[in-house]
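Quick question, first post here. What does this chain look like in 3D?
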Amino acid sequence: MTKRFGFTLAEVLITLGIIGVVAAMTMPTLMNSTNGAQYKTAYKKALSVLSQAVVLNVALDDYDLSQTTTTTTDDNASLYNLFNNRMNVVKTEGNEYTASNGTDVKFGASGNYTLYFNDGITFTFPTNASNCTEGNATVGATPCYGVIDVNGEKNPNKLVNCDGKNWNAGGEDCTVSNPTDMYPVIQILQICIL
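> Answer (accepted):
Ran it through. Tokens below.
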């Protein structure tokens, strides 16, 4: 009688079961961190593209955010025309943009413009946005607010939460530790710190 070395079927099945349980526990965390990194990268790209559009518009048409009006007819210095003329806009809607939790991203009673870009990103801002300046509100400065959705109409369509404070309180940057696909922006150039 010879002695054979190896694993029994029971030992192999128990080992595979343990590996399966560990994998099932770690996969959601791994997937969330991967999605979060993708959202962060897409947000930084979108913010960069919007900022470049503003800079290009200053160079070509000689007006910036502080000189914008609410009139969107051709050749007017509006926020709508600035982005529509300087970026690859494939579709425009003039209504609120709804997040997956049922929250409408709407700025006041006048509604929004939502611009859909060819890379899948959307940018929503109020139709009455004009003369966007940052600073002390007592001297007439009015920051402009908007929302970038880095994957357009695809889910999850959840607005990020700033850690410790409201993103539009005082017009300051916010810190985000749990990124998702919709990011608020103030003045196009202020960012959420990721």
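The CA atoms of residues 58 and 100 lie 36 Å apart.
The radius of gyration is 24 Å.
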